[in-house]
Amino acid sequence: MVLALAGNQNSGKTTLFNQLTGSNQHVGNFPGVTVDRKEGLIRGHKGITAVDLPGIYSLSPYSSEEIVTRDFLIEEHPDGIINIVDAGNIERNLYLSMQLISLNIPMVIALNMMDEVRANGGTIKIEQMAAELGVPVIPISASKNEGVDELIEEALRTVSEKRRPARVDFCAGVVHRSIHAITHLVEDHAERIGAAPRFAATKIVEGDRLMLDKLKLTENELETIEHTITEMETELGTDRKAAIADMRYSFIDKLVKDTVIKPAVSRQHQRSIRIDTILTGKYLAIPAFLGIMALIFWLTFGVIGSFLSGLLGQGITAVSSAVQAGLTAAEVNPVVISLVVDGILAGVGSVLSFVPTIVVLFFFLSLLEDSGYMARVAFVMDKLLRKIGLSGKSFVPMLIGFGCSVPAIMSTRTLTSERDRKMTIFLVPFMSCSAKLPVYGIFSMAFFPDNAALVMIILYILGLVFAVLSGLIMKSTVFKGNPVPFVMELPNYRLPSPKSVVLLLWDKTRDFITRAFTVIFFASMIIWFLQTFDVRMNVAASSAQSLLAGIGQFIAPVFSPLGFPDWRASTALITGLMAKEAVVSTLAVLTGAGTAALPAALSTIFTPLSGLAFLVFTLLYTPCIAAVSTVRREMNSWRAAGGMVLFQTAAAWTAAFAVYQIGTFFMR
Amino acid sequence: MTLCELEIGKKAKIKAVYGHGALRDRLLDMGLTPKTQIMIRKTAPMGDPIELTLRSYELTLRLDDARNIEVEKVD
What we know:
The complex is a heterodimer of chains A (668) and B (75). Among the domains of chain A are: 2-160, P-loop containing nucleotide triphosphate hydrolases (Rossmann fold, 3-Layer(aba) Sandwich), CATH 3.40.50; 173-261, Helix Hairpins. Helix content of chain A is 63%, strand content 7%. Chain A contains 29 helices and ten strands. Chain A has a seven-stranded mixed beta sheet, with helices on both faces. Chain A has a two-stranded antiparallel ribbon with strand order 7-9. Chain A is elongated and about 85 Å long. Chain B has a five-stranded antiparallel beta sheet with strand order 4-3-2-1-5. By secondary structure, chain B is an alpha+beta fold. Chain B has one domain (3-73): Ferrous iron transport protein A (FeoA) (SH3 type barrels, Roll). Strand 10 of chain A pairs antiparallel with strand 4 (57-61) of chain B, so a sheet runs across the interface.
């Protein structure tokens, strides 16, 4: 049995889903789009799957979230729907319920946050509401796990008795007449595609192109329909979409008047407004935001992250040396020892070093998201991102990009629009991540000791400039067309549920570690192999004779227009694919200088100008393997990830070329 | 008058919602239907977007989009 969980954003849907399924979840994608599809088995009941659909406000045909929800409900025939409704925000929530009811699938309404409504002194006449809507209504509190068992019982009863909604007709007068007429006309077509005739007719009256196309009506039928709707519009003096929206809200207004005694004040609402005098206040909003983000960065990349990373590093070193000692004592072939220690353990270690950052960062991010603050950030920062065709919601992921692209890309999952999400993922790697900092540091020290800070600032800004330019280009090419409108709810602030936070952390960590031991692990083995062997498959006598150096030599001419044709530079860039800071350590090894003497040794390979070109290239070229594999995972497409690698490398080459050539011209 | 001409803190009633496509559908879906009472609570620190209160919740939209909403003041 499959139960679909549908509801508005911020209605507590994820909390309810977590209560229903526990950690027994599977996250996938809806076919063809990067919209999450979460599934899980309901605890304590055998063989009942809950599917968590995206949080939506309507079944309109615009955003991919709305379309996949519709398609899922119509084409995959779930046995029932649990519609979660925020009792404190009941009017807008019921708007979706009415559309779900017209699908004519067995359905139960879970009236969430009833505890708050009651505590504030409000009441809802549950039975009367259920009678007027024609579906069972169960009051619950998802966060306190109250009423959830009753909800499941009622859902199972409704589904096993195949009890469809008792009424699917909420309209009166002229609208009623035209929906009725069109229902008859499209009945056969609708049943053929598995949609409820009433739902299909209502969507047609609303002017839903997608539904019209799906039904494959004849010329004649289309004409009759258009005539009927135009007549309705003339009679009402309003257009079709407004007529239907108005009809739904009129019904809801009456229903709410009959059955809901709203509390005079909602404490949660009042509290939110008070908090917002600071967090979205005219003068304090931006300082408060910067303060919060600075604190998160400091804690993640400074205090906690570095402590955990250090601990992990010590652990890995201890394991490596123990393994090395053990293998040496057992007189194992040195190549095998190198494979285990330098290849496997070092590879795993470098990948695992991401984990503390991801866990800590996502801990804070889930607090921001679940508390409702993320919506405020979008509100405050929207104006900045609008010009490149994004909304304020993309601000936080981009900011996290300055720390590490991997969690930044993973965090785009909170963006509700697929288009914004793809675009943001594409732009995040232009933010200079913290792993590039050692490269900037050592080059600035070597070539611009007096202006080191200035060079770094220029690089950071250059990354931003490229992000803006790419955004503008994408806005008018790949992502042409209308962005999803920025009409966003600012939900009441709430305390995040510990369970949701823990589940999210577990989900993200597991996801990353799975990838770490597949794609990233495989890639680090390849790099190890290339570093260890020479062309004749013997163990290379020195790193200069390795296969990797050979490849470096082979591609080096590509970089001569950029001013650094030396094979050691190109080899370092290849190892930078593993992790950007590896650029520094590779240069240290290949110049034979070691890290301390590296700045001096660099001047044998680079001039200050070609050093700058090298920095620009390092800033912009393809993100590391961990980030690329994250892009693939989040966009669900190797093509997208590959396209990004090519695009960024081309951008990097062009920019470094421009820096070197223009610089050479002026220095002549 | 349009919604962006309404002063902060003053209540108004929606007369009509213009515009087209996804934006208009979205506005209507979010409950900005004729006769609904709304109030502008504040503008964002950079002057845009704005925060509205309607149907006992808070909604934010951009000034450009708010121009599509015709309102009349209520006392």
